Amino acid sequence: MNSRARTLARRAPALRLLLLDVDGVLTDGKIYLGPGGFELKSFHVHDGLGIKLLQEAGIAVGFISNRKSPLVALRARELGVKIVQTGVANKVAAYEKLKRKLRLEDREVGYVGDDLPDLDLLKKVGLPFTVRGCPPELSRVALYASRRRGGEGAVREIAELILRELSEPRLSRRKKRRT
What we know:
Blueprint: H1 3-11, E1 17-20, E2 32-33, E3 39-40, H2 45-56, E4 60-64, H3 70-79, E5 83-85, H4 91-102, E6 109-113, H5 119-124, E7 127-130, H6 136-141, E8 144-145, H7 154-167, H8 170-178
Parallel strand pairs: 1-4, 1-6, 4-5, 6-7, 7-8
Antiparallel strand pairs: 2-3
Helix pairs in contact: 2-7
């Protein structure tokens, strides 16, 4: 087990909130714009189930995005995600305010980002994650970079990783490897 995996295993039990960037994490980063401001985004159903599984395990999930989009609010409602912050120019400031409101510590929060505007927030949270194809600056900070790209099940992959860390005691994992 490498040092990032050990850190992830040690920190995962404290997780109470996983925040997700939207464009490039929950979506493939493409935004389809039409006449009159008509907008489309594509969300992967596997990510939706991953979010539901985290919620069922007692981990709150929230969306935080620089872009303002009614589609994000719609997807959040579908999934029962109550923390939705869109049109956020400074994610760290929004995070600090949210953290105070929810009485959380950095170690109790995870974040999944995909691009340079996410870097400062990834450096603050206890569980920093990123997705395949992100800039190298993010990969250096993240404890885990998904094998899947944003919008292609990356959130589900990260959710399953978190849930596996919460359900498998380290001792039993060691025994499995030896056999």
